[in-house]
Amino acid sequence: MSASWSPAIDAESGVSYYVFAIGTNPAGDTTTRGNTRWWQVTYSTSMSVNVALDPAVTYYLSVYAVNGAGLSSAFATSNPVQPVWRALGAPTNVMSIAFSANGYDAGGAATAGWTSTQISTMTAFYTRMYPILVALYGPPADNYTVTAVRDLAYTRSNIFIPSTDEIRMSDSFSPQLFTHELIHAFRNDHILSSDSNWSYDPTLSGFEEGFAQAVSYEAMNAYVAAYPTDSIVAGNTLWGSSNDSNYDVQNVPEIRGTDFWSDGGGTGLYWLRYEMAAAAIRKINIESPGFYKAFNAEYYRRINASPTTLRSTRAVIVDIIKTLVPQIESTPAATWIDAQNIFYSQNVYGQKIFHKIQDYPTSQLYAFQSLYFMETMSCGSEWACWDGTKWVYHRLNGAAGTARLLDAEGSVVWSGPLQMTPTTNPAAGYMGFGSAIKSLTTASTLLPWPGGNTAEYVMNLSTLSLYTFETTFTDPLTNKSTSSSIRRVLGQPVTNSFGGVYGGVVGHRNGTIYLDHAGMPSEPGIPVVHGAFAGTRSWSGISNTRTGGRDSIPGRVSITFLDSDTGQTFSATRNVDYGSATGSQMFLFDFPPISDTTPPAVTIASPATAASISGSVAINANASDDAGVTRVEFRVDGSLIATDSAAPYGTTWNAEAAPLGLHSITAKAFDAAGNSSVYTVTPRVVDATAPVVRFTAPLTGALFATGAKVTLAATATDNRGATRVEFSVNGVLKATDKTSPYSWIWSVPSGRGITYTLRARAFDAAGLFSDSIISVKSK
User: Fold this and answer.
1) Which part of the chain is the Fibronectin type-III domain (predicted)?
2) pLDDT confidence tier of residue 541, bands split at 50, 70 and 90
């Protein structure tokens, strides 16, 4: 809402300022008059604020003046204001530009506006750039005019202010920075980094600044291609994110947060955030060309459908992206976005270590590194927070720490102490963040370049490897330690003269990696040694007349890595831009473990199917797995009888208690991933044990009179039970008894002195038998 009013008059002490508010009541006290937008001060006779208004509600602006004595005037109230929704992103919308006649010096005081020469330059640039932006970004959200204001406070950056429709910048006109702010201005009051009232909120800066930076680079490249002889922008300039080429190694947790400038600009973290955001948004557009424009169209469509309720939130942004681009780098869009630390959109409170590291290739490779030990405080800043009474500044200068450098095999190459200097913490005012310096290089000397102190380097890193630099610093006040690490490829030589492709594979030592760029011929694989690319091949690129070299081509790269140590194959996808200044790309792959879906192989060596078994049965199994067998379970008829966790795998089973007939014996082998396989045999349990029989009467050698009645008695036992006992005399079956106790009465035949052979034969159900034989004699 914008409004203006006639100046108040105070002949005695003059008018100092005005206070205004927006409410749904034209009368009442300050609370009722300001129930929509709180009271705030302005020193002019106009106001303009972003505020969420409901078209079904009537609003009123109330304002009062305050004089030099601090006395307030009566309220002045506007006529009723009825909001009318104006659809965003209409095809006919045009964003014009104007140039303020007034300017501001670095202290905020009024000064001269733009010169005619400056206006001429910016107008010429805008006239040519505007249609390029429309082609990339679609029509602006609103049909309006943005005003460029000369403000010498913005020497390091430009800024777009939605509430005043202004772009503020200094005299050092930067076409790219100006384009960056124009892209913000295209969304006007609906930039992604907004709160529920469409007021600026940095929480979603990862998305908003990422769009502005990525589109500005692409727009600048389109500009120089369309106007190669332009006097404003050099025709041989190639624009792109400075962290596209090493995105993998810079996607670190330290860039998480809600404010790009949380470090107050003191560490360079803000610049890493800008460039990582640009590279991430650019990756999405490479995945789906035309994404920038499609996103805005869908964003405006959703707001237009629900203007009073839909707001810019991370959930809304992610949903739009995944609707338009379901997969990014072969990963579901929402999962991919969550893996980009620049899109985290939350503060991570507590202490952290920021490795500010930059590769610089000459005849040797230098990785210049400054380390910052910082704390994200309760207000979200690492620089300073207001505790209600005073500013509380960062306090970790002087902290001591240790570091070590490990090669791909985990061996310590170097270790030593570090300290944050300066050691003094600020009590008030400005004092820079302390830092520790420990750079890495393949060189054995710092002469003739870059010079300096060898104590600030780890020198002579001639062995090609993927190195890990681990750091720990301790808070001198709490004695709490914080650790962090970063990876870098170094070695002599880093191949391709730094103008090709190099990189590393985390957690792997040796193999071959294939990098195939979409739309280009397949290229030979690159050996991987000590976790680092060891090939001599240059990165595919195109001759670039603007840079005079060959550059990485924007597009999709499919990666296949064959680990020669394990035989496993891994794959990934990367969307790349123009790479570094030399057209190179540095990759870092941290492949997730391959899911083990292959079950072990298992067989039962004995017993075999249909084999006859009895008594104590030995069960023996063979089991193997590429990742190792963890255990083998043995079951009989479905019941677990034993588990063996070490080869040779086996157990015993007492078959005596099992019913006769076929039985199921299984061996189930498991691996560490929980995969399993089963092998089954069905042997037959048989009775192999004959009964045991013994005469209890008469005794062998006994004498009996002829005609005597002699009781033959026997006992018979069997593991499964005796079924009968047969009594025989001299081999002739005389009687059968099926019930214990087993007996038969024998009449001794006539004739004295005759020897008789008596036999008791016991049978079981399987027909097995045994005998008990005695001899007696008649008298």
Assistant:
1) 1-87
2) low
Work out the end-to-end distance of the chain between its first and last CA atoms, rounded to an integer number of angstroms. Answer: 141
pLDDT tens-digit readout, 625-648: 988 999 999 999 999 999 999 999
**Amino acid letter for position 60:** Y
CATH number at residue 301: 1.10.390.10
| Three-class secondary structure of residue 121 per DSSP | helix
DSSP string covering 491-512: -SSPGGGGSSEEEEETT--SEE
Strand-pair partners of 125: none
Q: Which residues pair with 618 in a beta bridge?
A: 652
DSSP string covering 753-775, please?
Answer: T-EEEEEEEEEETTS-EEEEEEE
Residues 542 and 624 in one domain: no
How many domains are contained in the chain? 6
Distance CA 417, CA 137 (A): 50
CA distances from 41 to 19, 49, 74, 166 (A): 5, 12, 16, 19
CATH code of 625's domain: 2.60.40.10
Distances (CA, A) of 21 to 55, 196, 199: 18, 18, 15
What gap in Å lies between CA 624 and CA 602, rounded to an integer? 7
Element (H, E) at 620: strand 616-624
> Is residue 88 a part of any domain in this protein?
no
Which CATH number covers residue 549? 2.60.40
Say how far apart CA 182 and CA 95 lie, in whole Å. Answer: 9
Of 552, 592, 549, residue with least CA distance to 575 = 552
DSSP letters, 234-277, are -TT-----TTSTTHHHH--GGG-SS-TTTTTTSSSHHHHHHHHH
Same domain, 612 and 578: no
Spell out the residues 6+ positions from residue 620 whose beta carbon is closer than 8 angstroms to its own.
Answer: 604, 605, 606, 648, 649, 650
Q: Of how many residues is the chain composed?
A: 779
Range of the domain at 623: 601-685
| Domain assignment of residue 495, yes or no | no
Is residue 674 located within the same domain as residue 708? Answer: no
Q: Is 84 exposed, middle or buried (0-12, 13-18, 19+ CB in 10 A)?
A: exposed
468/504 same-domain check: no
- pLDDT tens digits along 127-163: 999 999 999 999 999 999 999 999 999 987 899 999 8
**Quick one: angle between helices 205-226 and 116-137, nearest 10?**
110
Alpha helices in 382-469 (DSSP H): none
Which 8-state DSSP code applies to residue 420? -
The two beta strands, 769-778 and 703-704, are parallel
Cα–Cα distance between 279 and 575 in angstroms, integer?
A: 10
Q: What is residue 537's predicted lDDT score, i.e. its pLDDT?
A: 58
